[in-house]
Amino acid sequence: MPQINLLQAVNSALDTAMASDPRVICLGEDIGEFGGVFRATSKLQEKYGKQRCFNTPITEQGIVGFSIGLAAQGSVAVAEIQFADYIFPAFDQIVNEAAKFRYRSGDQFSCGGLTIRTPYGGGIAGGLYHSQSPEAYFCHTPGLKVVIPSTAYQAKGLLLASIRDPDPVIFFEPKAIYRAEVGEVPDQDYEIPLGIAEVVTRGTDITLLGWGAQMHQLHRAAKMALEDGIQCEVIDLRTLLPWDLETIVASVNKTGRLIVSHEAPRTGGFAGEIAAAIQEECFLSLESPIIRVTGMDTPFPLVFEKEYLPDYLKVYEAIKQSVNF
Amino acid sequence: MTAKANVIGVPRFTEITDLTIPTLSILDAEGKLRKDAYEPLINKATAMKIYQDMAYIRILDERMVAAQRQGRLSFYLTCTGEEASVVGSIAGFKNHDMVMSQYREQAALRYRGFSSEQFMNQLLSNDLDFGKGRQMPIHYGSCELNYMTISSTLATQIPQAAGYAYGQKLSGKDACTICYFGEGAASEGDFHAGLNMAAVSNCPVVFVVRNNGYAISTPTSEQFSGDGIAPRGIGYGISSIRVDGNDILAVYAASVEARKLALEKNAPVIVETMSYRLGAHSTSDDPTNYRSSAEEDVWRKKDPILRMKNWMLDKGWWSDQQDHQLKAQYKKEILDALKSQEKRPSPSISELITDVYKTPPAHLQKQYKDLLSHIDKYPDHYLPNPNKVDHQTALTQFN
Fold first, then answer.
1. Range of B365's domain?
2. What confidence score (pLDDT) does residue B16 get?
3. Could you tell me if B206 and B260 lie in one domain?
4. How many structural domains compose chain B?
5. Chain A closest CA to B26's CA: distance in Å?
6. Are B362 and A107 inside 8 Å of each other by CB?
7. Domain assignment present for B92
8. Which whole-number Å values give the CA distances from A21 to A77, A114, A169, B249, in the listed order?
9. Residues of A carrying an active site annotation
10. Contact: A103, B134; criterion CB under 8 Å
11. Stretch A20-47: mean pLDDT, rounded?
C-alpha cells in the first residue's frame, strides 16, 4: 500500500470522488489549474475539465451559496474555503441556508450534496487569521455535520464519506500536519463512516479525547504517561457533529477519568459540550473532574503560538493532575 | 481586462449620468399601446391566464390580510401593486425552469398552479403544509412546481440561483433559473457575490429585481445613491434591462427576451421592474408612519391590474361581466379553502425532528423521547387539543 501524506490523501479522495461520480464538482479560490494554495486540488482541472473544477472569485458567501444551489439542483458540490479563518463571510449561507434547507422545505429540497472543505488550525506561524479552529460555531448548528481527520488514511475515507453523505458536511483539514502526517492509504475507493469515534490506543487509567492535529499531542503525552505507569486510552472523535457519545461513555465508565483537548479557545469550545454530556452520563463512574486542555481565550497569537497551543506537555500535566486528584 | 483601453490624458471622472438606463414601457397608464411601442407576441390564452392570476392574487391578499386581522393567521404579506412585475415575468418562463424567490412573489407560485388549498395549508401550518408547519406564513415552496422553498433571510437565494443555473447548464437541459428579490435585498453582500459568481461562471439565470420603492420603511433614497439596480448589473458584465413594472406587456416582453438571452449566451440577465409596494411591508407594519396617502394615491392610479384589464377590454378579450364573475368566484374559492383547511389538524409532533438530517441521529431521537415523556406529564399544557396530533404514532415512530 502506498505511503502518502494527508494532503495527498485529500487529493486522492477528490480524484476518486470525481472519477466515480460525474456529478461531483470542485470549486473555490485558486483551486483550478494552480491546484489550490496547498495543492489539495492538484491536477483535478487537468483531469476533469474546467466545468467540474474551477476557480471562483474571492467571495466565500458566493462560493457557499453557489454550492448550495448546485447541490440543490442535483450536483455534488465540494467547495474549498481557502482557510477556515475566512469562512465567516459564508456563515449565513452555512448556518441559515445549508443547515436548514431540508428542514424548512419539509424534505422537498435538500443540499445534502454539499461538502465544504477548509484547512484549519495553528502551528504554522499563521497568526490571527491563518490559525483558527472554528469547529464549535458549526457544531452549534443542527443540520450540519462536522468532520475532522487526523491521519492520511482517515482523510481519504472520511472525505469520501462526507462527499457522499446525504447531509451538508463541513470538513476541517488539519493543515499543520498536511505534509508531516504520512501513512498507508489505499489507491482504491473506501469510506470511513461518519459519526463514529476511533479508539486509537487502549488503556485503563484515563481517557484522552481529541481530533485533528491535536491527536498528535495526545499520543505524545500518552507515551510520556506510560513511562510513569499510566495507561491512557486515546480516542479520536473524527466526527464532531453528530458525535459518538456511546464510545466515549464506554471508555470513561472504564477509566473514570477524561481529558478533552482542542486548539480552539476554551470558552464555548466543543470540549465544554463533551464534558457536560459525559458528566450527565458517567457521573458515578468519574474519579476526578473532567479536564479541558485547550487554547486560551485570546485571538490566536503569533510570537507566542507555542505558549498558546495546548501541546503534549500541557496534556501530560493534566494527566498527572487527573490521576493524582 | 477589456480588449481596448480608452486612454485619456487629463483626469476625467465617469459619473452615473454618463450611463442612462432606459425604461421599457409599452402600455400607457390607461392601458393603451404607447406610440412607437412594440406589442409583444402574446396569445389570448396566455393573456387571460396572466390577468386571472393577477386578479386572483389581489383577492387572495385582501382576504388573507382580513383573515390575519380576525386572528385566523399569525402573519401575512401582500404583493399588491406589484402583480404585473411578478406574473409578467414568470409568464416568460417555462414550467421546468426553477423559481427562487424572495417572499413577495406568491403570484408566480399561483401562475405555476398552486391551489387555494395549498396556499391555505401553508398559511395555516396544517398537516398538509409541504413545509410541515415549520415556517411562518408565506414561506411557500413546491418541488412539483419547481418553486424553491422560501427563506426569510434576504438575498441568500441569489448566489444559490447562480449555482442552480450552473447545474442546469451542465445537465444540458433547456432550463434556467429565475431569481426574484427586491431593491432592498440588493444591498446585501449575497447580491454582489451572486451576481459576480453568475457572470464569471456563465450561469443561465435571470434576476428579476422588484424595485418597489420601500424596504419595510426605508425609501430607495436611503437604500442607494446610484440609479437603481440595473446599472450594477452592467458593472458585473451582465445584460440588464429596466421596465415599467406596472406595465404587463413591458414586463412580459423583457422576460421572454431575458430567458432567451440567458439560455443562448449561457449568461445571467437582470430585469429591474419599477413599481410600488402599495400595501404595508407585512401585517406587522403600518406605512402611515413613514409615507403619505397622497404618495400612495399616485401609484393607485397606476394599478397594473386595471391597466391590463383596459388593454384586454380594448382587445375584445375580456368583459366587465366576466370580470365581475371571476372575482366573485375567486372570493368564494378562497374563503371556502380557508374554512376547510383551517379545520385540518397540525402536523404530527414527530415532524419536530425529521428532516434536520436525512435520518434523525441518536442524540436527537433521545431529546425527542425526553420531550414526549415530559409532555405526557403535562398533557394539558402542551398540545392542548388531542385531536390535533397523533400522539401515539409520534411516540412509537423512532423506537
1. 349-396
2. 87
3. yes
4. 2
5. 35
6. no
7. yes
8. 11, 14, 18, 45
9. 60, 130
10. yes
11. 97
Q: What is the pLDDT of residue B342?
A: 95
> Within this chain, do residues B356 and B279 fall inside the same structural domain, yes or no?
no
Same domain, B332 and B372: no
Residues B292 and B332 in one domain: yes
Model confidence at B391: pLDDT above 70? no
A32 touches chain B (CB under 8 A): no
pLDDT score for B387:
40
Q: What is the pLDDT of residue B2?
A: 52
User: Where residue A1 falls among pLDDT bands split at 50, 70, 90?
Assistant: confident
Look at residue B5 in the predicted model and tell me its pLDDT. Answer: 83
Instruction: Give the CATH number of domain A3-184; options: 3.40.50.2300, 3.10.310.20, 1.10.3300.10, 3.40.50.970.
Output: 3.40.50.970
| pLDDT tens-digit readout, B217-269 | 999 999 999 999 999 999 999 999 999 999 999 999 999 999 999 999 999 99
* Partner-chain contact B151 A96, CB within 8 Å: yes
C-alpha to C-alpha distance for A106 and A56, rounded to whole angstroms:
31
CB pairs under 8 A between A and B: 160
CB contact under 8 A, A242 and B361: yes
**Distance between B163 CA and the closest CA of chain A, angstroms:** 4
pLDDT tier at B384 (50, 70, 90 boundaries)?
low
Per-residue pLDDT of A144-181, as tens digits, reads 999 999 999 999 999 999 999 999 999 999 999 999 99
DSSP string for residues in B126-190: -TT-TTTT-S-TT---BTTTTBPPP-SSSSTHHHHHHHHHHHHHHHT-S--EEEEEETTGGGSHH
Run of H or E including A19: helix A6-20
Task: Enumerate the residues of chain A whose CB falls inside 8 A of the CB of residue B358.
Answer: 102, 110, 112, 166-167
A-chain CB neighbours of B129 within 8 Å are 106
Q: Does residue B296 share a domain with residue B239?
A: yes
Reported ipTM = 0.97
Q: Does A190 touch chain B (CB under 8 A)?
A: no
Q: Residues A248-258: what's their mean pLDDT?
A: 98
Decide if B247 is inside a domain.
yes
Q: Which of the four pLDDT bands, split at 50, 70 and 90, describes residue B96?
A: very high
Calculate how close chain A gets to B122, using CA atoms only, in Å: 11
Sequence length of chain B is 399
C-beta separation of A62 from B196 below 8 A: yes
Residue of B156, B171, B197 with shortest CB distance to A96 = B156
Does residue B162 belong to any structural domain of this protein? yes
Q: Closest Cα of chain A to B182: distance in Å?
A: 18
**Which of the residues B139, B156, B192 would you substitute to probe the A interface, choosing the one with the greatest number of A C-beta atoms within 10 Å?**
B156
Of residues A60, A120, A55, the one with CA closest to residue A89: A60
Are both A3-184 and A198-323 of the same fold? yes
Please give the pLDDT value at position B385.
53
Choose the final residue of a domain: B341, B361, B383. Answer: B341
pLDDT of residue B399: 42
Contact between B161 and A61 using a beta-carbon 8 Å cutoff: no
CA distance B141 to chain A (A): 7
Domain residue ranges of chain A, discontinuous segments joined by +: 3-184, 198-323
User: How far is the C-alpha of A244 from the C-alpha of B177, rounded, in Å?
Assistant: 40
**Right CATH for A198-323 from 3.40.47.10, 3.30.70.370, 3.40.50.920, 3.10.20.740:** 3.40.50.920
Residues of A in contact with B192 (CB under 8 A): 59
In CATH, what number is assigned to the domain containing residue B81?
3.40.50.970
Pair (B276, B376) in one structural domain: no
DSSP at B227: S
Closest CA to A99 of A87, A114, A84: A114
Q: Which residues of B does the annotation mark as catalytic?
A: 277, 281, 290
User: How is B20-86 classified by DSSP, letter by letter?
Assistant: ---EE--B-TTSPBPTT--PPP--HHHHHHHHHHHHHHHHHHHHHHHHHHTTSSS-----TT-HHHH
To the nearest whole percent, how much of chain B has pLDDT over 90? 92
Task: Taking residues B334-344, report their average pLDDT.
Answer: 97
* Interface contact B355-A103, CB threshold 8 A: yes
Looking at the fold, whether B301 and B382 belong to one and the same domain comes out as no
Q: B79 and B54 in contact (C-beta within 8 Å)?
A: no
Chain A CA closest to residue B236: A57
